[in-house]
Write a structure and sequence with these properties.
The protein is mainly alpha-helical. Helix content is 75%, strand content 0%. It is globular. The relative contact order is 0.17.
């Protein structure tokens, strides 16, 4: 079963809206700018890990940051090496914390940049183009845009609700 999460669903939705009066931009420009933003975001996160990583590890766990998230990302990287930078983009917790972790462990920056670029292109283009081509293949779907947006919001809320219920029951995270 496939679950879209906030970043993924927004990319998919942007692809669907591309070329409509709602979002009048070419699909090439859309993919390029989103991929560039994803690429630059990972670089910023890498440098945050490089400069502030040790300080982050001393901070108490919160709803949004747990030191165990860095451990999960580090473990994922150890198993898959540089492919983790590409594949990890599709996995929510890994996507968020992997570049931070790579900065913290002072991973080779040149290798990071190469795989970061490939990962940004693969992740963004696959999701944006999936939405774009779905709109082209099934043009009548655009008439159900409100339902699609509501469905994406509901689906992306499931992990947040599950986490909230775990915390409320006292089982932690």
């Amino acid at each position: 079963m496939v679950f879209f999460l906030p970043g993924d669903s927004l990319l998919f939705l942007a692809g669907m809206l591309c070329g409509l009066p709602i979002l009048e931009v070419s699909i090439y420009a859309l993919v390029f700018y989103i991929a560039a933003a994803a690429f630059l975001g990972y670089i910023v996160s890498y440098f945050i890990g490089l400069k502030l990583g040790k300080w982050l590890l001393t901070r108490p766990d919160s709803l949004f940051f747990k030191s165990s998230y860095l451990n999960v990302a580090a473990s994922y990287f150890e198993k898959r090496q540089h492919g983790a930078i590409i594949i990890g983009r599709f996995i929510p917790i890994i996507r968020t914390f992997l570049p931070l972790c790579l900065g913290l462990i002072k991973s080779n920056f040149r290798n990071f940049m190469v795989y970061n670029l490939i990962g940004a292109l693969v992740w963004t283009s696959s999701l944006v183009l999936a939405g774009y081509f779905l709109k082209i293949i099934f043009p009548e779907l655009i008439h159900y845009l409100e339902w699609i947006i509501v469905s994406l919001i509901v689906i992306t809320s499931i992990p947040l609700i599950r986490q909230y219920l775990k915390i409320k029951r006292g089982t932690g995270g």
